[in-house]
Design brief:
The structure is a homodimer. Chain A has about 160 residues and is α+β, with helices and mostly antiparallel strands. The first copy, chain A, is built from 4 helices and 5 strands. A 5-stranded antiparallel beta sheet of chain A has the order 1-3-4-5-2, with helices on one face. The longest helix of chain A is centred in the middle third of the chain and has 16 residues. β2 of chain A pairs antiparallel with β2 of chain B, so a sheet runs across the interface.
């Protein structure tokens, strides 16, 4: 099974098209100091996300993106073709970790892998798909790992029509 | 042990000050359509987060905030006094769910509870604290639940000085 590149947005997939082990690679996003500070001012106004000088005296040792900023960029990269699902990317929940902070100048990309596919018993038109994703920088360091449960539409079954 | 209100920012707590079962209540944030659309345009450009008319034809049945937007607002409410920790709120990872979407006009608040406290064995100056939080709207419906592992500083132990 071939990986799907960032142009995967053109061929959106139903649950029935997915296979466990299938992988998708997103495009890239370069995060800079202005983006980090703007997000932090709005959602996470802590010194290590707002000001490089102030951040040097903290356990981050320098300006670091809010973890929720890294999560939001991951979503953007998946929506833009990194995870091409029919009906979009609709999450119910999941688990995550921030192994390293994202820093100004980091070039981020997301690799996603299908790890479980569960058609709904009560709703023949959908199911739950578990996707593990790893957001890495240009040094191949993980900045955000996520295992998310997504609601994914099914193709109409022949017997249902 | 008394709950700490939104004015809790004035008395920031060390790991040693925390107890399992201790609860904190944040202030509130009212989310509106303009905020929902602005966040979605930047990070989660899907029809159900961008346009109410388009959202009506989806499983959301109307405009809904991106789940990462709800997560980011939760962080803001915790940083602004909803979870008053010395050194700020520094997460390593956790688990989350979005039981209901946040909608335009929703008034959100976050209740946080300390569920585990683990001093570090190798680093006497810090430890890991697990915090369970529940972000609810004005109808008391959960829109985001999070169990997060946070790095929290310890007071200098007498024996260490």
């Amino acid at each position: 099974m071939a990986d799907t590149g960032r142009d995967g947005a053109d061929k959106r997939l139903y649950l029935d098209d997915l296979q466990v082990g299938q992988r998708f690679m997103s495009g890239t996003h370069t995060i800079d100091e202005a983006q980090i500070v703007a997000f932090a001012q709005q959602f996470d106004p802590q010194p290590f996300h707002l000001d490089d000088a102030a951040a040097r005296g903290t356990m981050f040792g320098g300006l670091a993106a809010s973890g929720w900023h890294t999560a939001a960029i991951t979503m953007r990269l998946q929506v833009e073709g990194g995870l091409p699902l029919v009906g979009g990317i609709v999450g119910a929940g999941g688990e995550f970790a921030w192994p390293n902070p994202a820093r100004p100048g980091d070039i981020l990309r997301v690799e996603s892998e299908i790890v479980e596919i569960k058609p709904s018993r009560s709703r023949p038109d959908r199911g739950m798909v578990t996707v593990k994703s790893d957001t890495r920088n240009q040094r191949d360091e993980s900045v955000f790992t996520l295992t998310a449960r997504l609601v994914v539409p099914r193709r109409a079954a022949a017997g249902d029509i």
